[in-house]
Amino acid sequence: MADRVYLDWNATTPLRPEAKAAMVAAWDQSGNPSSVHSEGRKARRLVEDARGTIAQAVGGRPQDVVFLSGGTEANALALTPRLRRGAAAPVVRLLVSAIEHASVLAGGRFAAGAIEQIRVTSTGVIDLGHLRALLADGAPALVSVMLANNETGAIQPVAEVADIVHAAGGLLHVDAIQAFGKIPFDLGSTGADMLTLSAHKIGGPKGVGALVVAEGVEGLESLLRGGGQELGRRAGTENVTGITAFGAAAAAAMAALGDDAGRVRVLRDRLEQGLRETPGTIVFSDHIERLPNTILFTAAGMKAETAVIGFDLAGVAVSSGSACSSGKVQPSHVLAAMGYRSDVAQGAVRLSLGWSTSETDVELALKAWRKLADTLVRGERRNTA
């Protein structure tokens, strides 16, 4: 609907025109990219061009980009026991931060007894002291820490994490899905041994993602077997249409990165200022570096489910956290890890902006919030007075 305001970009983004055009063009390619005839070679060229674009975007090598069905599969592939770099001992346990996406908290193919959680601070940043203690107390570990949290937007000190992990003989996996296209980074600046990316967070289609593996990392074992696609790291015919659109979206996102981030940050700050006009408002992780597009907030007496429905009825799409779990009536595990009480965590609502968000969108969202606040927040205070 043209009169609706979309503020749930961290869940998924609209399809970029460049990605849509690439998809339409790819539909006309009938060949299988593993076939050696002309049609197959044309399809292969589309896949490899996209691979090169994504590798360039994150400072990797094309041959180290593995295409998968999305971020969840990419995370699951990364969490492989016995990974190693060179002559170093293979990793045999997994350390994950307590605020990771559910696909990382699940632990991939590590046994439950080999997985430990790293605490985070009250601001939503990984506790480096606890990480050091965990690394010192056991065998070599694979550590998984997201670059930017999908709920709070808090940016993690992954370069420091990488130094700590590598000094202890471990490897670092960075879930960069929310950060890609919003802030600049690459394999070198993060120190990551593996990065995961997802197309639909940057204006590409749903159902395609990538794992980028740093040079020298060995031991990755395919989740799907039966074919030699992706250099044996992911069996199955490649999603040529989705991969081609992923590459186009990545190119467009990187070209607009600086301008988009600056403009969106101004709008985010204006929106946040308006939210704070309601007494008792809490904006989570507001005193640390965050993604320029993300606000996770609550107000005294607010229930997230009621607020999300209220926003929706007012024509504004928002969420109560990760889209993978927003349908569940339970507090955010991210806020719980930060030490917030369940009644506070149950009231958290996420607003996330993107490249087409306008000043009018922000004003309409604030207008909707002011009406909601009067009934949801002030009304709750009157009922409990």
Automatic annotation (TrEMBL):
This is Cysteine desulfurase. Keywords: Iron, Iron-sulfur, Metal-binding, Pyridoxal phosphate, Transferase. The keyword Nucleotide-binding does not apply. PANTHER family: CYSTEINE DESULFURASE, CYSTEINE DESULFURYLASE FAMILY MEMBER. Catalyzes the removal of elemental sulfur atoms from cysteine to produce alanine. Seems to participate in the biosynthesis of the nitrogenase metalloclusters by providing the inorganic sulfur required for the Fe-S core formation. Residues 5-363 form the Aminotransferase class V domain. The keyword Transferase applies. Belongs to the class-V pyridoxal-phosphate-dependent aminotransferase family. NifS/IscS subfamily. InterPro entries: Aminotrans_V_dom (IPR000192), Cysteine_dSase (IPR016454), PyrdxlP-dep_Trfase (IPR015424), PyrdxlP-dep_Trfase_major (IPR015421), PyrdxlP-dep_Trfase_small (IPR015422). Pfam families: Aminotran_5. Its cofactor is pyridoxal 5'-phosphate. It catalyses: (sulfur carrier)-H + L-cysteine = (sulfur carrier)-SH + L-alanine.
